## 1
Amino acid sequence: MIAGLAEESRFDFAGDVGGYGGQEDADPSKVGALVWGTRYDRCSLGSTNRRSEGSRWLDSALGGSLCRTSTPTGKPVCLFKTLYTNACFHECRYCSNASNCKSRSRTFTYSPQELAKITMDLYRGNYTRGLFLSSGMGKNEDATMEDMIETVRLLRERYHFRGYVHLKILPGSSKDHIIQAMELADRVSVNLEAASRSHMDELCPTKDYERDILARQRYIRDLSQKVNLPGGQTTQLVVGATVESDNEVFKRALYEYDVMRLRRVYYSVFRPLKGTAFEGRGRQPSWRGRRLYQVDWLYRVYNLDEAEVENAFDENGFLPNQDPKVTIAREVLDLPVDPNTASFEELIRVPGIGPKSARRITTSRRKVKIGKKSELRALGVRTDRAEPFLMINGWRSTTLDRWLS
Ligand code: SF4
């Protein structure tokens, strides 16, 4: 299996793809619809407007939008992000692919051969370095999962594709399919969508939160001990489609990190879509997702503990639209922090100081004492944000401006 190769070698060009003959006959409306169908699937830093010079069908199908993300080693890559099919038997009340959506558009489905060839065309043309493959359930999850796996198998075995593959595991997938998917992909994910069983019941009456989703995440976690999955397992939550608080979402994310050992949790803020059962519900502001990513980051990267991060939420469990690190610092930093004596853990709690700049401060001060704002700036500190929380040589923020230059 290819997952055993070193990360770098997996991004080499495939070289001879043996008999592959180009895709000028691909159907742009099908590719366009299935690419568009992934617009709420989060895996990424955003999208890019890179044009596929010389391939009109690609420009027409993709609308110049490919997905940027990073590999497990942090290397940025551009992915071809698509659904396998936009047909689905589930009844998720926020989704325009749901079988009960009144304005459901025409359904499309690739064949494994077709999708593998399109992916190779993009890869060989150097437009993308990998595939993000999600899907509706089609008529049943087993048949659709089988086809998605077959697509990746063709890529890996027939075309010797060494690009990155993020493969969605459909809710309710069999253990056998999960093993096969993990052997072929770099990263897998099951979309959690809701923060709890009761919210899932409201979002989608046809999915069983425990059996279809959590049990599948547990399989993946346990199988990860035996199968090499370099990108690990991730998930995604829809935020604000029901009345769950940000704190409920955050607590679910902690469970996913600590118990399910997920690599990342992604948040997608709810947008009502025409024809869906939730079309009358309020659109959530994009800053809600941004604030959730910030508390997630404080927990996951800064290693702040749960009780500390809880300070960022208001009495109703929601995050106000302000930097949670500042809110937490106001609660936990009783005294201003002296960059010449503070520990690494104290430094990273100061807004404007991240792990990198905290490390530079602790290294630099061994040689020479920090005495000026400009010296902190040179070490990567955002002094405009850090200043109210700092004290240098006995000077605090009210007079710091005068003293430091
Ligand atoms: S499972 Fe739900 S969210 Fe996914 S495509 Fe089907 S209806 Fe949409």
Note: Strands lie at 46-48, 66-70, 76-83, 130-134, 164-168, 187-189, 232-239, 264-269, 391-392, 395-396.
## 2
Amino acid sequence: MFDKISPAKTLYLGLTFIFCAFITIQCTTEQPNNDSSASQQEAQKAKEDTPELADAMGQLQTYLHKYALAVEAKNHELATFYFHEVRASSEGIKENIPGYEGYDIERFMTMMFDPAVEPVEKALANKNWDEVRQKTIDLVDSCNSCHNATAHGFVKIKPGFNNNPFNQDFSAPE
Ligand code: HEC
């Protein structure tokens, strides 16, 4: 009976066997690949969810500069507004990017930057503009100290009091 199997049937059975073997190999070899590409995707997503420190620093720089231009114009309301944003940005960095490239950003921020914040706020509250300028220069020094401490000393910040590149009028209301 077996010898009555036609060559076509043999070919068909043979092909079916090869196909099944092929599928089995595909499934077993692709399994780990799928897993690793899934974990790669997760790692990629975690990376996207962590904000870039450079972006956050750029935001800090913009608010600091706008604050300095409002100080230059002795516009108390605007300066107070922007300094609040400077403070909020630095708090946000501590919370969202506590570590970066092996540096303890949260600790550096707390040690170097935070002590320079309150003197500015105090001088600003008293509308003592000379003091405000001096304390702002101290604050900018603390930005640069931290850049030096984190191998980014080439990013040199200036107060930028009289250097307005913004499409915004900083003058105090009459
Ligand atoms: C905790 C330490 C620390 C403090 C404090 C700090 N920085 Fe930075 N800053 C860094 C590090 C680290 C980088 C490099 C980030 C990177 O490589 O992505 C950086 C990068 C920058 C950059 C380059 C990114 C860009 O957008 O051009 C600017 C500008 C900057 N900081 C501004 C400031 C200003 C302004 C202050 C103060 C108001 C400040 N930083 C305070 C650590 C600090």
Note: The longest helix spans residues 7-49.
